[in-house]
């Protein structure tokens, strides 16, 4: 028994697998082609307690910590679900944590006092947004990336000017996961001068005048996870919708990156593990020149290498995630874990598709979907190159 293999977590794995088998697999192909996940799936996942995993019960969650969230993600993919499905169903994993933290909560802990000022009641945001989202009745998104800034958070241009009890927001966001379906968007805005890091987070409701969802972006992978461009033209947002104190969001955003990056690392190694399983089954069943593929030493050795890389990535991500869950500041290790898992996922899925031959290139092959979905993981949450910069900095370079 290990930290991720306790009796309680085994039950969580079983619950997740049953959810995927019953609620996801019969419909996933249709969702992938439609480019959408039904809102009803959020409510179903909430009733089972899966939607709130990793969030304190005091804010409407199911309890648990980062490791429990990782287990759910891992099992969804290993049970035949898609990385895109996870992105669509659990977008609140990046939309809500800032609210919980500002209200005094700690993911996996308890809710205490709030950090917001007298004009801003962060506990109210918990009731208005966090609880309904974890109950499956609302969908949230996180809007940080802009057309000209990419991963450079400090250079955000979307500006919020204070006007009495409102902020007037102008700007644009892009590549926003669940931006089409979201009922609200946790939005990073500049509340100070350019270059001074004075950023704030505002919760902006869909339907607010001046806030428009632009075109739905078509992507290589993550087909059932909608992605959108957002535009803000003189959007008036109540000061009460600010998360925490004004000009303090840069640090809050940076602190939440660890969980997001480890989540994407989990996508990567889970895709690798699933592709190993698919490839092993295929190579046992597929015969060429009168012999099963698995009978050939070259194929067996390739499968062994695929399995080794997938398991090594999983072990390292779990180790780093346990340290993050314990509150350790392991920024460098998180960056390394993401890159290790992404590299393993990219290589393993490529080998798996090759072993599947022509069938692996067809939309009917599950391995084809994983091949497409895996490509975003070295881009989202900070590119592989940015992760290497973080590692280099941690080395004193």
TrEMBL record:
One of its GO terms (cellular component) is cytoplasm. Residues 141-235 form the Acyl-CoA oxidase/dehydrogenase middle domain. One of its GO terms (biological process) is fatty acid beta-oxidation using acyl-CoA dehydrogenase. Residues 252-395 form the Acyl-CoA dehydrogenase/oxidase C-terminal domain. Residues 6-103 form the Acyl-CoA dehydrogenase/oxidase N-terminal domain. Its cofactor is FAD. Pfam families: Acyl-CoA_dh_1 (PF00441), Acyl-CoA_dh_M (PF02770), Acyl-CoA_dh_N (PF02771). It comes from the Bacteria. One of its GO terms (molecular function) is acyl-CoA dehydrogenase activity. Keywords: FAD, Flavoprotein, Oxidoreductase. Transmembrane segments: none annotated. Belongs to the acyl-CoA dehydrogenase family. This is Acyl-CoA dehydrogenase.
């Amino acid at each position: 028994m290990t930290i991720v293999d306790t009796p309680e977590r085994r039950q969580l794995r079983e619950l997740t697998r049953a959810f995927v088998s019953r609620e996801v697999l019969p419909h996933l192909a249709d969702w992938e082609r439609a480019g959408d996940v039904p809102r009803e799936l959020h409510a179903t996942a909430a009733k089972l307690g899966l939607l709130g995993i990793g969030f304190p019960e005091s804010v409407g969650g199911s309890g648990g910590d980062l490791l429990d969230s990782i287990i759910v993600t891992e099992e969804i993919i290993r049970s035949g679900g898609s990385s895109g499905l996870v992105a669509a169903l659990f977008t609140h994993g990046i939309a809500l944590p800032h609210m919980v933290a500002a209200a005094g909560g700690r993911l996996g802990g308890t809710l205490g006092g709030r950090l917001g000022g007298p004009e801003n009641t962060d506990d109210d945001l918990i009731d208005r947004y966090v609880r309904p989202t974890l109950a499956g009745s609302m969908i949230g998104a996180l809007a940080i990336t802009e057309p000209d800034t990419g991963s450079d958070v400090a250079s955000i241009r979307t500006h919020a000017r204070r006007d009495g009890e409102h902020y007037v927001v102008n700007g644009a966001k892009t590549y926003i996961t669940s931006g089409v379906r979201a009922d609200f968007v946790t939005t990073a805005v500049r509340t100070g001068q350019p270059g001074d890091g004075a950023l704030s987070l505002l919760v902006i409701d869909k339907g607010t005048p001046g806030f428009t969802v632009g075109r739905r972006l078509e992507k290589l992978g993550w087909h059932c996870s909608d992605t959108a461009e957002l535009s803000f033209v003189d959007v008036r947002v109540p000061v009460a919708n600010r998360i925490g104190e004004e000009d303090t969001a840069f640090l809050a955003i940076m602190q939440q990156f660890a969980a997001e990056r480890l989540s994407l690392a989990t996508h990567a190694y889970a895709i690798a593990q699933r592709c190993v399983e698919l490839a092993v089954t295929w190579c046992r069943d597929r015969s060429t020149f009168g012999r099963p593929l698995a009978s050939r030493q070259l194929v067996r050795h390739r499968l062994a290498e695929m399995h080794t890389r997938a398991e090594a990535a999983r072990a390292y991500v779990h180790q780093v995630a346990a340290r993050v869950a314990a509150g350790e500041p392991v920024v460098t290790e998180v960056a390394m874990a993401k890159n290790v898992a992404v590299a393993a996922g990219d290589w393993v899925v490529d080998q798996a598709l090759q072993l599947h031959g022509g069938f692996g290139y067809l939309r009917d092959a599950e391995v084809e979907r994983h091949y497409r979905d895996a490509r975003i993981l070295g881009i989202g949450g900070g590119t592989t190159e940015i992760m290497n910069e973080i590692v280099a900095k941690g080395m004193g370079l």
